[in-house]
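Reviewers of the previous submission asked for a worked example of the structure-prediction workflow described in the proposal, so we include one complete record here. The input consisted solely of the amino acid sequence. No template or homolog information was supplied to the procedure at any stage.
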Amino acid sequence: MSTLEPDTIPQAESVSFGRYLFDNARKNGILLAFVVVVIVFSILQPMFLSPANLTNLVLQYSYVLILALGMLMVIVLAQIDLSVGSVIALTGAVAAVVCVKGGAPWWAGVLAAIAVGLLVGAWQGFWVAVVGIPGFIVSLGGMLIFRGLAQLILDYKSLSPFGGTYYDIANGFINGLFGGNGYDVFTLVIFAIAVVGFAVSQWRGRMGQLKYNQAVSPLPLFIAKIVVVAVVAMAFAWQIAHNRGLPFILILLAVLILIYGMIMGRTGFGRDVYAIGGNLLAAQLSGVKVKWVTFWVFVNMGFLASVAGVVFSARMNSAQPGAGNGFELDAIAACFIGGASTTGGIGRISGAVIGGLIMAVISNGMQLMGVSQGVQPVVKGLILTLAVAFDLFNKRRSATAA
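From that input alone, the workflow returned the following structure tokens.
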């Protein structure tokens, strides 16, 4: 017979549950903040959760999430890239010259834009990784160089229209494959499969942690998280299924998020990025190829900036000399709001995605409410400042506790 008191086990579970919430306060806080922001704008503007507006939210702010995926890797590396907005303008200009002026097929414009983005990433990666110039300085110079090149290529004028398949990259939908009466069944099926995949992935991860005697979240909280994600995902799917179906750009986003989540969480390259950002000297002593990892992180940022450039130019159906102005700030803000550390070594793809969604929801909500263009950047700036302040507060509290 056990000698434990009757209330011993419940007390242990209670402590474990509370400790888990405390240890994950930042991540849970970001999720809570996202939910609160959505609820607030839903109350202030009833049109916010309408099928048309949710679809528009995906189409209009997809570039933020694409940029945030690459920027998260750069920030975890303890670097920064201020040039991505200018790269969007440059790659969009190249695609326009190839497709609109040259009359080439849509895929030629996409490949040309991506090639330019890779060259830009290699250029900046060389100066940062090989020469040793800080990324802030290199990308600041790049911001000026690439913006100027975009203006020269376009001769200071917008170039349009793309039309056709290129336009559909950011404006097209899959609708009616499985039928539906007033809604698209295919969209619901795809989201249901994604929810099941998420649940299976989470369960396998939990079993793997238990196998190696690692700490896991309490089972009720684990189940609650999956249920909440499933409800939110299917509610979102139900809404957009009543509009125009599944956007092409949403499929692209999902694929990129899955790929980069796997790279940062399950590959040696991702671990090297975290190691360099967390402790550069220790990474060097442990045999990490710091220069090559840094180089490829910037090449990857150039690649994702070119993808964002294609998406943005397709969305606008034109290439513009001023395209991408300030986009780098949205991407950086998304990463910091999502939990990335200002000193490197900390940050998650999921956090960057949530941070990007918060920025998108706030921008969209303020536009629906008719908030002036002067007030919107003020609000974004305050949110970014508070996010970084919260990061510093957590670090100081952890240092004090240690």
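DSSP finds 16 helices and two strands in the chain. We consider this example representative of the routine output the project will generate in years two and three.
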